[in-house]
């Protein structure tokens, strides 16, 4: 029985690693997966598990982009705080990046933390997830058609202004309120709308995930407590480890993919998935 639960955790880790970074909603996929592959755990543990498993995905971002997010060291230091001494090891361009990340996280951090339980009670259902999948799928298609052949004003993360960061953060808040929107999907749509290129939008979205998902995971662990059974601990660690490995592969794939392709394929996928979610649960209610 325990081996079967570990295999299920592996499957959840694979789904998390794929869907967390592609703009297709990890929540929508987790809801469907849980309908067919249920972990033999308590409801409280599963609610914690489906959030904390994201820590594995976050570590993948840290590993892949370490050289772009670690603000200390002399190697490739293009903007040192001082010419010599300890401050010469500070990379001011990366410090500015983290200021932008913090600014973009403010809306979700303030409103999301204050009303998290309310949002979950009101919107954590298959109807909301399906509608969000479809609406943002349509948004991807419309925006990509509108921008076809145009050169984006902002070609790199460094060119994203503080005002733009706040606007992207508001879109991230939409994802915090409405499950199924997809955090990466919402922030990418927001970035594209204000003139950020696909590559810069995706990269900045990965950075935003670090404090947001780490904070959400920490909150869930504290709410659940640390009273894990041995089986629960193995399930959680297995899911996180698999999500980490899969996330590294998916992040590298997406960054290469969008250099030559747009996001419309993900838009169509979201629409189809949203319709399937509605049909599945409608049929389940009937039979």
From TrEMBL:
<keyword id="KW-0046">Antibiotic resistance</keyword>
<feature type="transmembrane region" description="Helical">
    <location>
        <begin position="44"/>
        <end position="66"/>
    </location>
</feature>
<feature type="transmembrane region" description="Helical">
    <location>
        <begin position="121"/>
        <end position="143"/>
    </location>
</feature>
<feature type="transmembrane region" description="Helical">
    <location>
        <begin position="164"/>
        <end position="184"/>
    </location>
</feature>
<feature type="transmembrane region" description="Helical">
    <location>
        <begin position="7"/>
        <end position="24"/>
    </location>
</feature>
<feature type="transmembrane region" description="Helical">
    <location>
        <begin position="267"/>
        <end position="286"/>
    </location>
</feature>
<feature type="transmembrane region" description="Helical">
    <location>
        <begin position="97"/>
        <end position="115"/>
    </location>
</feature>
<keyword id="KW-0961">Cell wall biogenesis/degradation</keyword>
<keyword id="KW-1003">Cell membrane</keyword>
<dbReference type="GO" id="GO:0050380">
    <property type="term" value="F:undecaprenyl-diphosphatase activity"/>
</dbReference>
<comment type="similarity">
    <text>Belongs to the UppP family.</text>
</comment>
<feature type="transmembrane region" description="Helical">
    <location>
        <begin position="204"/>
        <end position="222"/>
    </location>
</feature>
<keyword id="KW-0472">Membrane</keyword>
<keyword id="KW-0812">Transmembrane</keyword>
<protein>
    <recommendedName>
        <fullName>Undecaprenyl-diphosphatase</fullName>
        <ecNumber>3.6.1.27</ecNumber>
    </recommendedName>
</protein>
<dbReference type="Pfam" id="PF02673">
    <property type="entry name" value="BacA"/>
</dbReference>
<comment type="function">
    <text>Catalyzes the dephosphorylation of undecaprenyl diphosphate (UPP). Confers resistance to bacitracin.</text>
</comment>
<keyword id="KW-0133">Cell shape</keyword>
<keyword id="KW-0573">Peptidoglycan synthesis</keyword>
<keyword id="KW-1133">Transmembrane helix</keyword>
<dbReference type="InterPro" id="IPR003824">
    <property type="entry name" value="UppP"/>
</dbReference>
<feature type="transmembrane region" description="Helical">
    <location>
        <begin position="234"/>
        <end position="255"/>
    </location>
</feature>
<keyword id="KW-0378">Hydrolase</keyword>
């Amino acid at each position: 029985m325990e081996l079967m639960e570990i295999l299920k955790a592996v499957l959840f880790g694979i789904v998390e690693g794929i869907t967390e970074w592609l703009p297709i909603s990890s929540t929508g996929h987790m809801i469907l997966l849980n309908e067919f592959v249920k972990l033999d755990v308590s409801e409280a543990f599963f609610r914690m598990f489906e959030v904390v498993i994201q820590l594995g995905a976050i570590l993948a971002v840290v590993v892949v982009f370490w050289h772009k997010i670690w603000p200390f060291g002399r190697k490739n230091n293009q903007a040192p705080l001082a010419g010599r001494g300890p401050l010469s090891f500070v990379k001011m361009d990366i410090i500015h990046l983290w200021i932008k990340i913090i600014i973009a996280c403010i809306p979700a951090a303030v409103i999301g933390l204050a009303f998290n339980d309310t949002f979950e009670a009101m919107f954590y259902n298959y109807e909301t997830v399906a509608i969000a999948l479809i609406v943002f799928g349509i948004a991807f298609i419309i925006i990509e058609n509108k921008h076809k052949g145009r050169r984006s004003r902002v070609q790199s993360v460094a060119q994203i202004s503080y005002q733009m960061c706040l606007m992207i953060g508001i879109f991230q808040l939409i994802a915090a309120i409405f499950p199924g929107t997809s955090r990466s999907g919402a922030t990418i749509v927001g970035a594209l709308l204000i003139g950020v290129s696909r590559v810069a939008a995706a990269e900045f979205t990965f950075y935003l995930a670090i404090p947001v998902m780490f904070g959400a995971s920490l909150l869930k662990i504290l709410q659940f407590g640390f009273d894990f059974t041995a089986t629960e601990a193995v399930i959680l660690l297995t899911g996180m480890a698999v999500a980490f490995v899969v996330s590294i592969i998916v992040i590298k794939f997406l960054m290469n993919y969008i250099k030559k392709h747009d996001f419309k394929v993900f838009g169509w996928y979201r629409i189809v998935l949203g319709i399937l979610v509605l049909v599945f649960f409608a049929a389940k209610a009937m039979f």
